[in-house]
Amino acid sequence: MASPSSSTTTFCFQCEDSSNSVTFRNGWRLRSGKFAQLCHRCACGRVVTPLFQKSLSASDADLALSRLVIPKKCAEAYFPPLSGPHKIPINILDTDGKEWNFHFRFWPNSRSKMYVLEGLRDYMVSKKWQAGDVDAIASVYASP
């Protein structure tokens, strides 16, 4: 895989193709400042949608907890609805294009809910999470 060398280079988020003959579709700005898009070949098979970015709290970056508190508005807008506090498996695509398997659930919190992704230990180690870091998560859905 070719790695884009400049922040002005357009490349496919999935296959990292940056050749001039490639037609790109959609896109979003990555943490690195680069603008990622999908080439036609990758866009035909699936749609990659950035979900949210979050500045990590000390508890988010705690390996012993291995979980991420999801902002309520993001959880209710982008994640499957939950009928109870039981966790459901969910596959997440990170901004590097790697798929991770987590569990999504909520905890009752006063008159509201606290949404969390659990089972993030390997992900946290891979990303070297520290409090104050900003992490972005995207999800992959099969095209209709």
TrEMBL record:
Enumerate the Pfam families for this protein.
B3
Gene Ontology cellular-component terms for this entry are: nucleus
Alphabetical list of InterPro entries matching this protein: B3_DNA-bd, DNA-bd_pseudobarrel_sf
**Record's protein name:** Transcription factor
Is Transcription there in the keyword field? yes
* Primary localisation category: nucleus
Q: Which residues form the TF-B3 domain?
A: 52-144
Q: Where in the cell is it found?
A: Nucleus
Species annotation: Solanum tuberosum (Potato)
- Name the UniProt key words of this record, in alphabetical order: DNA-binding, Nucleus, Transcription, Transcription regulation
- Single Gene Ontology MF annotation: DNA binding
List membrane-spanning regions.
none
